[in-house]
Amino acid sequence: MRKLRILIAKVGLDGHDRGAKSVAVGLRDAGMEVIYTGIRQTAEAVVSIAVQEDVDAIGISSLAGAHMTMFPKVVRLLQEKGAKDIQVFGGGIIPKNDITELNKMGVGKIFLPGTKISDVVAYLKEAFPN
Amino acid sequence: MTDNPDELERLRKIQGGDVRTASRLIRNLEDNLPEAKTAIRQIFPHTGRAHVVGFTGAPGAGKSTLVDAMISVFRKQSKTVGVLAVDPTSPFTGGAILGDRVRMQAHAEDPGVFVRSLATRGALGGLSRAVGDAVHVMDAMGKEIIMVETVGAGQQEVDIINHSHTVIVVLIPGMGDEIQAIKAGMMEIADIFVINKADRDGAGQLENELISMLNMVSEFPGGWRPPIMTIGNLFDAAAFREDVEKLADAVGDHYRCLVETGLLADRLRRKTVMEIHDALHDAILSPILTELTQSGEMDRITKRILQKESDPYTIADEIAGKYARDGKRNRMIN
Ligand SMILES: Nc1nc2c(ncn2[C@@H]2O[C@H](COP(=O)(O)OP(=O)(O)O)[C@@H](O)[C@H]2O)c(=O)[nH]1
Ligand SMILES: [Mg+2]
User: Fold this and answer.
1) CA distances (Å), origin A84, targets A73, A76, B20, B257
2) Residues whose CB is less than 8 angstroms from the CB of residue B49 and which lie 6 or more positions away in sequence, other chains included
3) Would you list the domain boundaries of chain A?
């Protein structure tokens, strides 16, 4: 059976990763393998790790407002590395207009604060049916 | 070996160090896909050059931190590095959080370093079943040093010896059960002992206990008496780096000793025997178990044994007899 592998990354300069960690735990409890990388990742590092770990998706937690540069950069670098099949999704305090914009650029679902973990699980299971 | 153009292309890519292809193959090995086994057959002739270094020791002993520091040393020597870091799969959910990379962030963008996290997926012994083949993949990629970090969950972590040329046992002072663990088998597997976080109380005592245990050994294979390396506080950066460089030197010395004494050949033989065991298990036992389960026979057998109509040994003989007969018949037909 194919086991889902998900990279959970925390980008940006703030050192706060409680949200990212609880998503990691929730996905593990749903039977997924979660690669957790710690805080303050660059887009380059995130993409490099995603390829090394052969993940299905990258969940990026962005609190510091860098989302409009960070998400598109990750999507672009994935393309450059021939890995655009790796789905990018995210979470954080991100304005509605920006979400629409990001979706257009190829970013998947953005989960707002207060989202239940089960919604993230359902999203991933639907995106990657076994 | 193969004339399938896709397979040749994959082999060429892996030998060229292509991370995406290699990582996908490792994943297919973890998922136990039949095509992955085919790929390993093709890769196998191109392996055998890497020096494989295993790290074992309790969770929190500082294995990942040490691996990270060793990557820096080996990279300074312009060696390419592969890392396989194993973390436990939850027996309840089948999921896992693989967090060893948190300590290895500094190397994420270095193309000379390939770090791959693996979950145990139910394997006992502190590793994942895919580790052996994943080592082959990194070896075929041309990685000169491959470091394997075990889970570190207990005293049964002796599998690491089947997969590495040099085993480093990482200990920290002040954990009373360290010496117990060593008595329970870790002693025999260590090629190098590390006393990590040696700035803590109890480092001297731990070292003395190790020395007196080593003194009781009458003869070391190849004359290699495992050295005890002490590594001080990570946050005293300069001294820490110096300690880690000494550890890297010891790792190099050990490899030379293996080569010069012929012990390397013994280790390769040991790994090969284990691989034959595993491959036979996959080729013979797994299909039988699958068939028994799927046909419902497993339930019937279990019931018979529970009702004391039979016992596991008699059943096993029956099944073995049946499959041996079938095997012979198949051979005659072919
Ligand atoms: N004081 C001290 N802490 C260390 C040292 N090496 C590692 N640590 C810390 O010990 C913890 C566990 O380290 P880690 O490398 O993840 O251990 P592992 O579980 O064996 O891989 C981390 O918080 C490290 O920062 C050291 O030399 N001194
Ligand atoms: Mg670790």
Assistant:
1) 12, 8, 12, 46
2) B139, B142, B144
3) 5-124
Residues ≥6 apart with Cβ < 8 Å to B20: A51, A54, A81, A82, A83
For position B263, what pLDDT does the model report?
92
In angstroms, what is the span from residue B72 Cα to ligand 2's centroid?
17
CB contact under 8 A, A53 and B117: yes
Find out whether the beta carbon of B59 lies less than 6 Å from any atom of ligand 1: yes
d(CA B234, CA B62): 10
- Give the best residue of A7, A22, A35, A78 to mutate against chain B (max B CB count within 10 A): A35
Ligand nearest to C-alpha B86: 2
The closest alpha carbon to A10, from A46, A60, A58, A49, belongs to A60
Residue B68 near chain A (CB below 8 Å): no
Q: Which ligand is nearest to the CA of B100?
A: 2
Q: Ligand 2 centroid to A20 CA: how many Å? A: 19
State whether residue A28 sits within 8 Å of chain B by CB.
yes
H-helix or E-strand spanning residue B115: strand B113-119
DSSP B131: H
According to CATH, the topology of domain A5-124 is: Rossmann fold (3.40.50)
Q: What parts of chain B have a pLDDT lower than 70?
A: 1-2, 153-157, 175-186, 326-334
For the record, the structure tokens of A102 come out as 């990001």
Q: Domain residues of chain B, as ranges? A: 48-261, 273-333
Per-residue pLDDT band for A61 (boundaries 50, 70, 90) equals: confident
The dihedral sign for the CA sequence A26, A27, A33, A36: negative
Residues with CB under 5 A from ligand 2 (ion): B 63-64, 100
Burial B179-214 (b: 16+ CB within 10 A, else e): bebbeeebbebbbbbbbbbbbeebbeebbeebeeeb
Name the pTM for this structure: 0.91
CB A25 within 8 Å of CB A120? no
B48-261: which CATH topology?
A: Rossmann fold (3.40.50)
What ipTM was assigned to the predicted interfaces of this complex?
0.93
Q: Give the C-alpha distances (Å, rounded to integers) separating B306 from B54, B253, B312.
A: 43, 56, 10
Structure tokens at A34: 């979660």
Q: Distance between CA A102 and CA B237 in Å, rounded?
A: 42
Contact B31 A2 (CB under 8 A): yes
